[in-house]
């Protein structure tokens, strides 16, 4: 089956066209294709499908096979894929996700997509008790202890469920150990994405993310957006800032309560997946 591999600020994805192939057992397929040794290797997998409520539908899976409602870096790569492959021949179009219909705007150079802006909608601090135990609902910069270590943590849904922890020095954080501890804490029954952040100045923050279902990645688009929202609230940073992630830089703009993310999307390769 034909695939294309993309990356957006170092978060990488395998994309298949569900309009050409009937793709079954998707969670198993995601685990196989995303495996860095036995597969192609990626942080996640997307499948293109038709939509009744948008121009196209994006089905997203983490590298561990779990379904996630939205992926910020992924939808930028997905938008590039569907435009450059002439599935959608519009520079402004809509993508159906489990987190709702997202508006995308392409920046085209030489006939190909280079940058994509996504309207990620409104952030949500109210969470359901299926996702977050009652004691962690609507928390903003609250001191909680995980594995006997204190963290000032915020919980926010920005397409998908995120926690945000500000620290004075990101280099002091063992992202894999401490990220995993929070990601799998009992108060998050469905797990949670964990963003460790450091404020550089009013227009720049640094974020390193331990992703639910993928582990530490070079970037998390929804995590960058979620952190920018919390940063404005808790640290007083601006409404149009640069989020510096390990794999590059994302621009996050808050306008009339909606959050816009602009960032790159790049085709790495295309080929035939043998399964
Ligand atoms: N791991 C996330 C989904 C992918 C999000 C991330 N790759 C992004 O760019 O937003 C979750 O399980 O909610």
TrEMBL record:
Pathway connected to this protein: Amino-acid biosynthesis; L-lysine biosynthesis via DAP pathway; DL-2,6-diaminopimelate from LL-2,6-diaminopimelate: step 1/1
Active site: 71, 71 (proton donor), 220 (proton acceptor)
Xref: Gene3D superfamilies: Diaminopimelate Epimerase, Chain A, domain 1
Transmembrane segments: none
Domain of life per record: Bacteria
Chief place where the protein resides: cytoplasm
Enzyme class: isomerase
Catalysed reactions, as listed in the record: (2S,6S)-2,6-diaminopimelate = meso-2,6-diaminopimelate
Similarity section: Belongs to the diaminopimelate epimerase family.
Subunit structure, as described in the record: Homodimer.
Cross-referenced NCBIfam families: DapF
Protein's UniProt name: Diaminopimelate epimerase
Organism (species): Proteinivorax hydrogeniformans
Gene (UniProt): dapF
């Amino acid at each position: 089956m034909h695939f294309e591999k993309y990356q957006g600020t170092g978060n990488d994805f395998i994309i298949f066209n569900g309009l050409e192939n009937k793709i079954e057992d998707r969670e198993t397929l995601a685990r196989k294709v995303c495996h860095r040794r036995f597969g192609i290797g990626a942080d996640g997998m997307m499948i293109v499908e038709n939509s009744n409520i948008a121009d196209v539908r994006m089905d997203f899976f983490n590298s561990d096979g779990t379904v996630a409602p939205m992926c910020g870096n992924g939808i930028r790569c997905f938008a590039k894929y569907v435009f450059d492959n002439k599935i959608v021949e519009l520079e402004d179009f809509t993508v159906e996700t489990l987190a709702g219909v997202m508006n995308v705007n392409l920046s085209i150079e030489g006939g190909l997509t280079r940058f994509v802006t996504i309207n990620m909608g409104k952030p949500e601090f109210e969470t359901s008790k299926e996702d977050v135990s009652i004691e962690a609902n609507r928390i903003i910069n609250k001191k909680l202890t995980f594995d006997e270590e204190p963290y000032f943590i915020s919980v926010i849904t920005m397409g998908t469920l995120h926690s945000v922890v500000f620290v004075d020095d990101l280099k002091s954080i063992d992202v894999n150990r401490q990220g995993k501890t929070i990601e799998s804490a009992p108060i998050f029954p469905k797990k949670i994405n964990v963003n460790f952040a450091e404020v550089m100045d009013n227009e720049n923050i640094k974020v390193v993310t331990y992703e639910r279902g993928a582990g530490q990645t070079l970037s998390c688009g929804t995590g960058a957006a979620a952190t920018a929202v919390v940063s404005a609230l808790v640290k007083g940073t601006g409404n149009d800032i640069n989020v510096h992630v390990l794999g590059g830089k994302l621009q996050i703009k808050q306008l009339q309560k909606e959050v816009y993310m602009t960032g790159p999307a790049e085709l790495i390769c295309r080929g035939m997946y043998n399964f």
